Amino acid sequence: MRFLCLNRFIIYAKNVSNFSTAAFKGFPAARRNQPSEYPKSGNYEDLLSWNSMITRYCKNKRIEDARHVFDKMPERNVVSWTAMITGYAQDGRMDHARQLFDEMPERDVVSWNAMVAGYAQNGRLDDARNLFDKTPKRNVASWNAMVTGYVQNGKVEGARQMFDRMPEKNVVSWTAMMAGYVQERKIVDARQLFDSMPRRNVISWTTMINGYAREGRVDDARELFDKMPRRDVISWNAMIAAYAQDGHIEEASRLFDKMPERDVASWNAMISCYACRGKLDDARRMFDKMPNRNKVSWTSMIAGYAQDGNGEEALKVFGEMKWAGVKPDQITFASILDACACIAALQQGRQVHKCIIKTGFESDVYVANTLVTMYAKCGILEHARHVFDKMSEQNVVSWNAMIACYAQHGYGQEAIGLFEQMQRVGTKPDGITFISVLSACSHAGLVEEGWHYFDSMDTDYHIVAGVEHYACMVDLLGRSGMLDEAKNFVDRMPIQPSAAVWGSLLGVCRIHVNLELGKYAAERLLQLEPTMTAPYVLLSNIYAVAGRWDDVANIRTMMKDRGVKKKPGLSWIEVKNRIHTFVAEDRSHPQTAEIYAMLGRLYKQMEEVGYLPDIDCVLHDMDDENKEHSLQYHSEKLAICFGLISTPPGTPIHVMKNLRVCRDCHTTVKFISKIVGRELVVRDAIRFHHFNAGLCSCGNYW
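Given the sequence above, the corresponding structure tokens read:
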């Protein structure tokens, strides 16, 4: 949530007519068909009409049209000049504004304030302060422009110094300063200022409510809300958002129902509330009932579906949004790219990328970062790197995203090389950077390097290791077979081990079939997360590999009694913009006969060149023949075969799986890649596997 205090300067409002929007829409575009009839000159009403045209064009971001009208004016007054200067400032063209300001035949305090505010709002605080100091006569709006400018640029101490120097203050001054403290999360200072205000307006109250909401102090926010002498729709929306942010959905809903009036932001707040808590059906019902929708409404639904892992539904909503004529912005694009990434919808992701290029958002660092992640999660690492290298600006998130891409694909040395390059160009790593670096070391078995970077967090960067970093180190040590070291590492942790840490230890016990330590880790994990599926399944798998079927049965009974359900294994593949999903032994697909025929032919060819089924991967108590049959029809094998019969020879096939790929499937796909002469890319719950010519990029280390 963003907390902004907007200081609006009304430039000679009484001299500007209330031009209707409908009338303004009739104004032709400049330089093509200019207005055929301009206002006549010679009296006050005509000058007022000229000024109104300039103001309306500027407000609608038609700055060239505004300038054309300004240049055509037979006479101008200080309002004309100030309106044009304000238009340039709002458009970020401060050099044009300053040139016009310097040309003014006469100036008043409003003209000076417009320039000062323009510099401040465009981040040019030194220029703003220089002009402020030269202003021959200041009023309270002059001081407010500087206070607000300091606040908006994160210079709260500077704002306070200016605030304390003010010869007089109004409610805007107090509210702007309070908003600065809220922005800096200095809630005590904000409240002291709020209590000291000689007069408050609805914006003051709402700003304080937002401050409490940001700190998770919903009860304090509600206490203020209930005391408000007057509320507007923004106040109600702020309180609803406070409840939504803190997860109090029922309270937010009750408040929404009580609202005397609602605007589109009210509906959007409820949609976001439901979506962020995974209640997508409720969010969709609210969305469908909205009397009017805006860009935020559509984006909230898309983001909600993407975060819930329902990429197909997110893509449907995105299509409906385009059909409704609503133009996406950078947040919309980032959300739909997340949706493409989560289901590996590469073809549709590429189509979205084309839309991004057409709309000019490719240079936006936020969108570019999401593009990097989308291509990487769809298995096209070279495209991800291409987008990264083309970025005009790379922030720490950009570097983190690209390092994480290499980590997910198992390219540990490349991830480390990029990390070193990041430091050479002067970008300071953060905690997330080290999670990706340690993960890369883990997937590549780089134990010494992992220890080096873990230690350097504190010694070189003064970053305190969090539970995620400790979990990565446990995974690194455990995957390398150093289970005792992993256990000792957990025992020596200076912070309480989290579910992620115990989950990492349990996962590596599953890889190396360490029953005793696995049971110990599972017990600790279940103490923290008794309804989590993973500890039951992983411990059951360890028992199954060890042939302890009674213990397997006991765990399954325990899961049933506690209402814990195992997530079914799914694999999916995108073909011709459609996602095709498979489960083990799936026969629901329209092309089942061709899929099974292809799989049968492949098995015959594999057996001829030495393939033997790994029946230890079957985690059910059955005879060997049934185990072999069970292995043959795992979901990723069916998805690969569908890809083989549905795509031209030689094209790569990308398959996604929601669980870890088993050893037998890993071996099978290596054989298939050699037989069919194609690259087969499989993304499982852990990492990417690039199969080519009978080899896998993981080097059998996963």
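The longest strand covers residues 571-575. Try to locate this feature in the token string yourself.
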